[in-house]
Amino acid sequence: MDPEPDTATASARLDLLPLRVAHAEEMAAVLSDPALHAFIGGEPLTAEALRARYERLVAGSADPAVVWCNWVLRARPEGCLVGTVQATVEGEAAEIAWVVGTPWQGRGYAVEAARSLVALLTGAFGVRTVVAHVHPAHHASAAVAAAAGLSPTGTWQDGEVRWELTVRG
Fold first, then answer.
1. How many whole angstroms separate alpha carbon 169 and alpha carbon 167?
2. CA distances from 146 to 30, 111, 126, 164, 169 (A)
3. % of residues, the chain, pLDDT over 70
4. What is the pLDDT of residues 113-159, one digit of tens each?
5. What domains lie within the chain, and their CATH numbers?
């Protein structure tokens, strides 16, 4: 099945909502801690810069064989956005990433979101290979990848370890 980037899903405490440009203002605050960029580089974006980025993301990939799927994470207990998950899907393969704002870290939201994302991709979307790239010193992100069913491969890309889940079917 072709991925549908507008598919919403939910987990026990989170709603994974398709990314909208209107999320930029709230997400700029969620992603404002410079510490979030320690392993990925860059710096927090302003609401205006994030709005421009979201405009590009929701427009989708210029390559018709590639589908960009991006969700914001709304924590129902807090009633606010707390992070994002994303997948770049090409055929039966997807590369995923996640980020949870600093105030909401340590509550299991990243694990819950990553597990929901992998389940959606390998279930409804028919993805057979899920990949994430994790900085070797980012132990929390490695724990999220492992909890989502991915395993380190020993392959490196741009200073990060490739983690992978292959679904047999």
1. 6
2. 24, 9, 21, 9, 21
3. 98
4. 999 999 999 998 999 999 999 999 999 999 999 999 999 999 999 99
5. 9-166 (3.40.630.30)
Q: 86 Cβ partners below 8 Å, 6+ apart? A: 68, 69, 70, 71, 96, 97, 98
Q: Between the CA of residue 169 and those of 74, 89, 122, 166, what are the distances in Å? A: 32, 18, 10, 9
Strand, helix or coil for residue 102: helix
pLDDT tens, position by position, 56-99: 999 999 999 999 999 999 999 999 999 999 999 999 999 999 99
User: How would residue 166 be classed by pLDDT, with cut points 50, 70 and 90?
Assistant: very high
List the strands of the sheet with 93-100, edge to edge: 9-10, 14-18, 66-75, 80-90, 93-100, 129-134, 160-166, 151-157
